[in-house]
């Protein structure tokens, strides 16, 4: 009879064979997200919004290609490793003021596109004006986005600010290697930047085949977490999977009866070009179903501002 391994041993085995991290490729991550959003936008009830987010992702891609390799602060990394803390933790990481240049490039790219709707171009122009004349206001807006404390009147700017912050953090994370990221960081948050994950994907191919990875909406790092485990409270009891009847294959919500939350899980074998942010955004019908069933989302989508 096969021996059933206790949980600790299963994780021990995982560390020997399964890559614990998937670091972002700066040359493809936002480009592929933009393409995926365009694909998902076809015949979708939220078509206009998904198309705009596709434009935003394409602008993120273009912006990221203009940046030179970041310098890694080895001393900071060593300190984080010593304390088992995410090296790019936003609350402990002083943003380089140059991130505002990233934002300016991103907004200029959007503002110069003739396929971006007027309302979005107006927001981009307004933010560009603030970047030039009131950079301290932009810093405060970025802090408010990161701490989920944005004033209601500013919510239309959220996706644009988050998009710039995503480029900034993804650029930094793409320069790191596995050895820069501690093995045992706190459960449930990105081991690289401490953000809550947006969704998870069961990958196909190579040594990650069949393994589930959580995705960071900020620095784009993915990290392995065993399946049938609540990604919010780590419970392994009362985990259920929900899908839309007759809906697309490979899209489920993983719910937990211990903490009454859910997070989506996508199966790459059914959706080869799945993207953790795009597919989450395009499956809002599943969020409605989960809300009706009495479960709360454990964290939001970076491109859709929701009141905390
Ligand atoms: Zn992260
Ligand atoms: Zn839970």
TrEMBL record:
InterPro entries listed in its UniProt record: FdhE-like_sf, FdhE_C, FdhE_central, FdhE_N, Formate_DH_accessory
Domain FdhE N-terminal: 18-181
Record domain FdhE C-terminal: where: 228-304
Cytoplasm among keywords: yes
Keyword Magnesium: no
Pfam family, one: FdhE_C
Main subcellular location: cytoplasm
Compartment(s) where it occurs, according to its Swiss-Prot or TrEMBL record: Cytoplasm
Keywords: Cytoplasm
UniProt family annotation: Belongs to the FdhE family.
Job description of the protein: Necessary for formate dehydrogenase activity.
NCBIfam families cross-referenced by the UniProt entry: FdhE (TIGR01562)
Protein's name in the database: Protein FdhE homolog
Gene that this sequence comes from: fdhE
